[in-house]
Amino acid sequence: METIENHRNYQRARRRVKCIKGFYYNLFAYLFVIPILAWINLRTTDFYWVAFPALTWGFGLLMQGMEAFGYNPFLGKNWEERKIREFMEQKEF
Predict the structure, then answer these.
(1) Does residue 5 surpass a pLDDT of 80?
(2) Buried b (16+ CB within 10 A) or exposed e, 24-55
């Protein structure tokens, strides 16, 4: 029984690390690409269109970071794990 629990914990930790790693890759790409787009924008036109990709990608990055680090202001901390335990304890589920 203990080895099964250890395996589950390892798998959960592995998924979490993979999620955090994906967030950092996306953050690096954002910090690399947005300044290039801003430079292109300033060199080509007077309309500041770079704000649209910066804001939309930034919002997506924010959501990904919140998920990766386990922050959810809407449902509370560890809400998902509490619900999983609740369903696992129910006999009729």
Answers:
(1) no
(2) eebeeebeeeeeeebeebeeeeeeeebeeebe
